[in-house]
Amino acid sequence: MSFITLIQGASRGIGLQFCRSLLARDPGAVVIATCRNPDGATDLKELQSKESNRLHVCKLDITNEQQIVSTSEFVKENFGKLDLLINSAGMLHPSGKGETSLRDVSMEALTLTMQTNTFGPLLMGKYFGPFLTKGSGSVGVQSSDPKQRHTAVLVNMSAKVGSITDNGLGGWYSYRMSKSALNMATKNLSIELGRGKNKVICVSLHPGTVDTDLSRPYHKNVPNLFSTEYSVNCLLSVIDSLTVADTGKFLTYDRTVMAY
Ligand SMILES: NC(=O)c1ccc[n+]([C@@H]2O[C@H](COP(=O)([O-])OP(=O)(O)OC[C@H]3O[C@@H](n4cnc5c(N)ncnc54)[C@H](OP(=O)(O)O)[C@@H]3O)[C@@H](O)[C@H]2O)c1
């Protein structure tokens, strides 16, 4: 039985690397990769040309609820179930740099950042939750308890700066607020999708500071910048180790539990 993963936000960065790593490590893996502009996603297109039987690309702008609905209908018709859903799309700020003080805060930037980083991932939970009920258990989600083995996983890519407890510096209003609220969405999803027979494990993950376009303006200040390969390798180890006891948690790439 195939292990089916949907990566939301797969054109670049961490999302693209999830596609590469999942396909490379498991010949039975099937990946549905979504992005808002498939024609412009050069690296994803190249990967698809090599993996046309196992990699399916769908157009999805995460701020567009109708496109989320259409994608969920496509997945339902063609695959019937998902083992793993990763919400990876994200933005720091429309300008590419986080606000340094209140004078930089605007309604427009706050709204777009929240729609992309928070509201979209929550709506993915709404429309895809019903298919996240039958993990095949062929890869990942290890557990010694057979009752826990057939458990699907929903991952929201969060960020350490979304931790209210850890916030000692301030700034980055839009991004911090969007990730903090995303963590609340993860917690709520873990409760609602954790009820009943088919439980879904829902977690927020922090990938470390990773060498991607999102973090590029700050690379010179980062002593330990992770490659996407390294970060995703760590994140997949965390995902593989999850059990229902972990649902609702905010975990880092090395499985440290972050305070909300
Ligand atoms: N890099 C880090 O150091 C770091 C640290 C902590 C957390 N994170 C989180 O990790 C996740 C991945 O970040 P990254 O570093 O891989 O960023 P990235 O390289 O800048 O990639 C961002 C991705 O989000 C997509 N995206 C943005 N707006 C979208 C929309 N409206 N609809 C669909 N897709 C959209 C982009 O698609 P387009 O190509 O169409 O623009 C792109 O695929 C994010 O949630 C980020 O907050 C990253």
Automatic annotation (TrEMBL):
This protein's GO CC annotations: cytoplasm
Highest rank taxon of the organism: Eukaryota
InterPro entries registered for this protein in UniProt: Fungal_SecMetab_SDRs, NAD(P)-bd_dom_sf, SDR_fam
Listed Pfam families: adh_short
One GO molecular-function entry: oxidoreductase activity
Protein name in UniProt: C-factor
Organism expressing this protein natively: Pinctada imbricata (Atlantic pearl-oyster)
